[in-house]
Amino acid sequence: MSYSRGHQGYLGTVMAPMLAKAGHEVVGLDSGLFAECVLGPVPDDPPGHRVDLRTCPRTCSKAATR
């Protein structure tokens, strides 16, 4: 499984389809901050999660202590 960080932004909209075409199972991780900023036609989004990776270490630490 390949995680595409920022799959809805400038480069992610190009990279996620390329990874999928190469046979990878792609799951997107994106805060959506640049979801409207794409290069070229809007691609089909892979399955994904809306997450801000800048806060992931804190979020993950809290989840681990529960």
SSE blueprint and pairings:
Blueprint: E1 2-5, H1 12-21, E2 26-30, E3 48-50, H2 56-64
Parallel strand pairs: 1-2, 2-3
Q: How would you explain this protein's 3D organization?
A:
- The chain has one domain.
- The protein starts with a strand and ends with a helix.
- It is built from two helices and three strands.
- 29% of the residues lie in helices and 18% in strands.
- A three-stranded parallel β-sheet has the order 1-2-3, covered by helices on one side.
- The longest helix is centred in the first third of the chain and has 10 residues.
- It is of the alpha/beta class and 66 residues long.
Give me the side-by-side strand order of the main sheet. Answer: 1-2-3
Please report which band the strand proportion falls in: under 5%, 5-15%, 15-25%, 25-35%, 35-45% or over 45%. 15-25%
Report the radius of gyration as a whole number of Å: 13 Å
- What is the N-to-C order of secondary-structure elements (H for helix, E for strand)? EHEEH
Give the rounded overall mean pLDDT: 75
Number of domains: 1
How is the biggest beta sheet arranged? 3 strands, parallel
Distance between the termini: 27 Å
DSSP helix fraction: 25-40%
State the helix count. Answer: 2
User: What low-confidence regions span 5 or more consecutive residues with pLDDT below 50?
Assistant: 61-66
